[in-house]
Design a protein that fits this description.
three-stranded antiparallel beta sheet, 8% strand, mainly alpha, globular, 9 helices, 242 residues
């Protein structure tokens, strides 16, 4: 039985970015979050990659700033469109619910830490707005009013990001290919950032976020400290080809 040849980090990064670039070209390149959600080509299940066009390119490719998926737990019914919509929030009046999206919560935290939006003591507090309102002895409407400027800023920030997705239609579960691609991509990109192969721009909002975000150059906190492996790359490439 042949022993797999270990892949070097920079080579793995090249392969990953090449696969995402191929997906981006197939998907009309540079689609915003709202455009992707409206797309008739959006699959029921998949893995998504957020790209920040304002960031320095990596090895000649746009920089991926968040990776995610959905429907990992057995029995989960959530769709890719639903997950992306949670990140997007409202469109007509920019806003949303950061308690339903870790991405939104992290971006809001960074805005608050940067000091451009004043203070918001309820941001990230409790898993439901009603519980946060009770904890702070505020009415629900009063709490919503306090959080509204931050939710709006988060929606406007996310609106300028591009989204690329790879269809992966297997059933939810711990062995889901979506989970393998998500974890593999995050751990590889995070390690590349720690090794200096990926550099975030000087003005990137993530510099005001948690250590996990700053060190990985990703709006992710799960899987950023896991050992990287190129094992998922073949799986991703197969999905791109099909």
């Amino acid at each position: 039985m042949a022993v797999p040849i270990p892949i070097m980090l920079e080579d793995a990064l090249h392969q990953l970015l090449g696969s995402v670039a191929a997906l981006r070209a197939e998907q009309e390149g540079g689609q915003t979050l709202q455009e992707v959600i409206r797309s008739k080509a959006l699959p029921r299940r998949g893995v998504y990659f957020f790209i920040d066009p304002a960031e320095p390119q990596i090895l000649g490719h746009p920089r991926i700033v968040r990776v995610g998926t959905h429907a990992i737990s057995a029995g989960s019914k959530s769709t890719l469109k639903q997950r992306l919509a949670q990140h997007r929030g409202r469109v007509s009046e920019p806003g949303g619910n950061h308690r339903g999206s870790v991405f939104r919560r992290l971006v809001g935290e960074a805005f608050l830490a940067k000091g451009t939006l004043g203070t918001c003591p309820s941001w990230g507090l409790k898993g439901a707005r009603s519980a946060a309102a009770t904890a702070l002895t505020l009415g629900s409407e009063a709490l919503a009013a306090v959080e509204r400027p931050v939710e709006r800023a988060v929606s406007l920030y996310l609106a300028h990001l591009e989204v690329v997705f790879v269809p992966v239609g297997d059933e939810p579960g711990t062995a889901s290919a979506r989970g393998l691609i998500e974890r593999g991509t995050i751990s590889l990109l995070a390690e590349a950032a720690r090794r200096g192969l990926i550099k975030s721009g000087q003005d990137w909002l993530g510099h005001w976020s948690r250590p996990a975000v700053r060190e990985s150059a990703l709006w992710n906190q799960n899987h950023v400290h896991e050992p990287w492996s190129g094992a998922f790359l073949r799986l991703l490439e197969n999905q791109v080809v099909t």
